[in-house]
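A further point concerns the way the authors explain their paired sequence and structure data. Since the whole study asks how a given chain folds, the encoding of that fold should be made plain. A single example would do more here than another paragraph of explanation. An entry of this sort, consisting of the sequence and the corresponding backbone structure tokens, reads as follows:

_____
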Amino acid sequence: MMKKMLFFTTLGASLAALQIASAQPPPSYPPQELDNLVARIALYPDPLLSQILAAASYPNEIPDAAGWANEHGYLHGEALAHAIQADQLPWDPAVQALLPFPTVLQMMAGDMSWTTSIGEAFMAQPDAVMDAVQRRRREAMDFGYLRTNGQYVVTSSGGYIQIVPANPGYIPVPVYNPGIVFVRPRAGFFVGGAITFGGVTLGAAFAPWGWGHNYFDWGAHRVIINDHPWERRWDNRREYVHPYNGVRRYEPSQRIERHDIHKRRDHDRGRGK
């Protein structure tokens, strides 16, 4: 009887804690703070930017994902996609989708305060976050830093600036200093060298995570992930499940055996040391 009473007492306390957490008011960021939050990713191509915003809404999963990506840095393309599936990872597919981008995940994991804030802002104020991205892009374009090049194509239509990869199969990752590209250049400064690029080649193997089907509908203030509007918001963040085909997240108890097999295979190949 005492055990049963203790169980219901513990269950009641857990439910009460969940209700309190669910009732927390959404955060509110003023435009200037949002401009600062989006500065480091505003010039990323739309497919990558959309995926980062979605993944940031699961900040607690980012550090482990960054570690996994770093450990499997020797894998690329189809081999990496197979490893992600084989390991039956416990993270949301939005986080898994960034595993081919270890530098992006390391950037997010290295500043969890920023990652948590941008994820919360995106859930609570998605329209305002997108407006902040557009303000930053407009600044960089007006100052001559943001323009079409061999890596991505920059267009402006209907008052919105779109950035898409020049090669749909290759996702460029721009590297820039926000303290430079959003400030009017001094006379004689060579703006063409302010943004450099890394990048990742993604093939059809990554389509299940949405790649090739991620974009912004800027006019409607919608983010499209895997051809579906991303609708995870502050009030439904504990229940929302975005539709994916062929990708899922596994609880630890569901993945131990396959994970161990994969680790042993890596070790046998001399890669798990």
